[in-house]
Amino acid sequence: MLAYLIRRLFAAAVMLVVIIMVVFGIFFLVPKWAGVDVALSFVGKQADPAAVAGVREKLGLGDPIYLQVWEFFKGIFAGRTYSAGGDVTHCAAPCFGYSFKSEQAVWPVLTDRFPVTLGLALGAAVLWLIFGVAAGVLSALKRGSLWDRSAMVVALAGVSLPIYFTGMLSLAIFAFGLKWLNAQYVPLDQSFTGWFGGMILPWITLAFLYAAMYARITRATMLEVLGEDYIRTARAKGLREQTVIGKHAMRSTMTPILTMLGMDLGALIGGAILTESTFNLPGLGRAVLDAIRNQDLPIILGVTLITSLAVLLANLVVDILYAVIDPRVRLA
Amino acid sequence: MTTQRTSGRRKQVLAAAAVVAGLLTTAACGGGNDSGGGSKNGAAGFDAANNKVAQASAVKKGGTLKFGGAQDADSWDTTRGYYGFMWNFARYYSRQLVTTKAEPGKAGAELTPDLASGLAKVSDGGKTYTYTLRDGITWEDGKPITSKDVKYGIERVWAQDVLSGGPTYLKDVLDPDGKYQGPYKDKAADHLGLKAIDTPDDKTIVFHLPKANSDFEEMLALVSASPVRQDKDTKSKYTLHPFSSGPYKFESYNPGKDLTLVRNTNWKQASDPIRKAYPDKITVKFFSNANDLDQRLINGDIDLDINQTGMSPQGRTEALKQHKANLDNPVSGYIRYAVFPQSVKPFDNEHCRKAVIYGADHVSLQTARGGPVAGGDIGTNMLPPSVPGAEGQKYDPYELAGANKNGNVAKAKEELKACGQPNGFSTTIAVRNNKPVEVATAQSLQASLKKIGINAQIDQYDGSQTTGIIGSPANVKKKGYGIIIMGWGPDFPTVQGFGLPLWDSKYILQSGNNNYALIKDKTIDGLFDDYVNATDASKKPGIATEINHKVMEGGYYLPFVFEKFINWRSSNLANVYTTDGYSGMYDFVNLGLKNSK
């Protein structure tokens, strides 16, 4: 198990380095190839030559790409100092870059935004797992029934309707119309009840989309599993239906669900852009959206790395859980 | 049994659908219809604050004034900010020697003394400006604001390598040869080495201009002329907490999230003839979703939009239907237009440019911009109505709002013949990809031009890279951008503040260029020189008119609209009015609340 874990960790680290290199290439080489001077987007309507030179110096745009990558890695472990025109800015380790648009180091922005996104992703995951898997199992067990058909129609709606539609609809009804729920985000450290109240609609909206997908995949997998020989054997042995479903069928059904969960959680932690912008949640998704709008490359770079890291870690956890659920994985 | 159950469920589904429909209607109505002439909820009426003061007598001291916005400022540093709303908002925490009057409409664009006890004493043929500071003016820590603080604040404009982004008019006028290197590289012990400004004592400041400029005092009214105290200057990080000279100071600021100002207890009302400082607290919350922002405005959670660029189409439609009494429809000061770079053939030929002007369907372009209410009146020339010397739609040399408003194919074809392209030609329209309304105007123009044989391809370029892409004449020529869709508003309401970078040949730059048409017209350059040197202020509007005429005669531009906005004011806002000083925005600095709890 330990060797398996080390192997996976090593692969994840290599992947992360490759991602950093690719992201750097995209952000710093593509504009050069396109003949666009990134510095000009920082200097406003009156592009003073000194201003353009100052931005180039601060962003290190004149340095070769390998030097920029090296400085970036060095900054993560040892911090970094930016200076131009007598203005010195120190970015303490772990320095994931510095945003000259908002005059903030990237790492504190990420750590400030991360809990919001994590809270959103985990809360929604709990909901979609409970309702999605339960609906899928029930549909499979009552195949062809009115329940099955209704649940799958709702699931189809959930998959088809985009978040900005369901989000705006839920806001219009429950927050602005009936005023049952608060649509304002309140940080957790200010008030637990305020935070919880403000997160209910985003959780439900996000979970609606994912629960629909999970219900459909659970139903399909469960139906497949229920047709397996070992289920028939278990029933033939006289096991209670609860035991057949709960112990034997569910275990196999959970494998693809776990894979999906890892991927989905990883991607969501990287920023649920649509949900966060619809509900105005100050998470990573909104940070990256604002950064794209403002061409704030260091923030985009930072969020991209966090997303990659989250997906890698989530996959790692899934791989480990796989090994726990299915011992054959370790042998492979 | 099964049938009965199914029937019951159907009823439930129908009932649920009816409930949802009912709730949606309730949500959409949001509290009933308000007529245009005032409303039950206390809104002042449609256009009640457009160029006039609404609810002035209802204002009460205290409370929290709540702004919302879809975009944070480019910078809150007085030297670096360039967004119009930032200049407007900055008056809460910064003062200048002179500023615009806190009055509605045209009067709001006139200058009045702020930190100074009077307007400038101008001498030496318009090359020397002397100001004396008022008594009782203080920083947020209670220390007096001195002439040296004003000089240092202005000197920061020279530190472009550190403090980029803001307007550089003062630098260009006071030090056209770029001799001064800015306070951070200044070897003088007090870092006040700029020769063009003298501070003989703490109360007096004297500006020496190498060449007279009749708009110099307008430049001193920009927030980039605000005082900054040296010991509080955190250089590039000043944006996070500018040190206040106004009635409010920064309490907290989280970029892109929120901003809170609280009263500056060391500010004295007696020292400030402009600011009334009604609310106790001012908050700004930033939203990434414009529809959410509009919904919160309509819901009353927020008093007004800090960006002041108009409501989104969805919010606007709902507000116009249900809450008209909360809306104003001012002219923004911006002109939206197409411009023809002369470096791209055949737009070096005046007749080819004019063929496009005549061939365009101006009503269709106006519709693409949002129609007469949300988009604006059809633009007939290139001088915004708020600029002295502007004639509005009265000057319409191509009859764009008259006989030719739907395009004049025959006249366009005549012009094509005169330019040697009787069968039309092919070209490219460059448009920012992050401005859906501009893309819509490009498509409208493309459709009109097809009728006269001009085959225009649309190139949607990265809008965030505007300066680098269309600001480079070489790149424009290389990409063959014969038509560029853009918009422009005045930095200060004069022909110099609007048109100098667009039309004067001295402003053709290799990067960061704004004279996209590459106009090199000695008459226009000469008129700008006349304007800048004018010692008689009464002659300035006439010169502005003449410049506008010359630009239009050259056919360099196809104006779309004199832009208008639909802006929201909450029913709780008092003493609210739009001002030409800030291009039709509400004048933030003296807004108050009717109910301060």
Automatic annotation (TrEMBL), chain A:
UniProt topology in membrane: Multi-pass membrane protein
Mention any Pfam family matching this sequence. Answer: BPD_transp_1_N
Annotated compartments: Cell membrane
Domain annotation ABC transmembrane type-1: ranges:
114-322
Recite the UniProt keywords alphabetically: Cell membrane, Membrane, Transmembrane, Transmembrane helix, Transport
List the transmembrane segments. 9-30, 116-141, 153-175, 195-215, 257-279, 299-325
Q: Which branch of life, at top level?
A: Bacteria
Establish whether keyword Transmembrane is in the entry.
yes
Q: Does the keyword Transmembrane apply?
A: yes
What PANTHER family does this protein's entry cite? INNER MEMBRANE ABC TRANSPORTER, OLIGOPEPTIDE TRANSPORT SYSTEM PERMEASE PROTEIN APPB
Similarity annotation: Belongs to the binding-protein-dependent transport system permease family.
Q: What is this protein called?
A: ABC transporter permease
Gene source species: Streptomyces anandii
